[in-house]
Amino acid sequence: MTTIKTLEKFEIAAKSEGFTMNEDKCVYSAATLDFLGYRISHNTLSPGPERLAPLLNLPTITDAKSLKRIVEKAFESLKVEPANAAIQVIDENIPFTVETDALDFAISATLNQEGRPVAFHSFTLQSSEQYYSL
After folding, report:
1. Sheet architecture: strand order including 96-102
2. pTM check: above 0.85
3. Which of 18, 43, 66, 105 is most solvent-facing, going by the fewest CB within 10 Å?
4. C-alpha dihedral over 73, 79, 84, 87, to 10 degrees?
């Protein structure tokens, strides 16, 4: 079945269930799509331009108070960055690479394919676990 036939069947089924579609907002056969603040393309989900605009449009820092505020915000953002990073869809035909890091107080890992992340994991060690040998 062709994509056009599938789309026509979808539209008929949607209309029969009472759904309406605004043709001005419909996108067909697009290589990329911006949706709910993310850019979706073949096997990739990344932050959309409107999510990046506040960072890209930051004014130049001219005083210590502003610098401190920006550094604090950057640190808070950095803590959640893995959740917003572009995640590659897993392809079971491509070999996996695991990268790990262990500190005195935390352990983290990423699962990668061709150098791109597909999963993240990290946790903080309990005080008793901090004495385990690695």
Report:
1. 96-102, 106-113, 116-124
2. no
3. 18
4. 150
The structure tokens 């808070």 sit at 76
pLDDT tens-digit readout, 84-116: 665 667 788 888 888 888 888 888 888 888 888
Long-range CB contacts (within 8 A, 24+) of 86-89:
86/44, 86/45, 86/46, 86/47, 86/116, 86/117, 87/44, 87/45, 87/117, 87/118, 87/119, 88/43, 88/44, 88/113, 88/114, 88/116, 88/117, 88/118, 89/43, 89/44, 89/118
Residue 3 CA to residue 112 CA, distance in Å, equals 32
Percent helix / strand / coil, the chain, rounded to 5: 35, 30, 35
Dihedral through CA 74, CA 77, CA 81, CA 124, nearest 10? 100
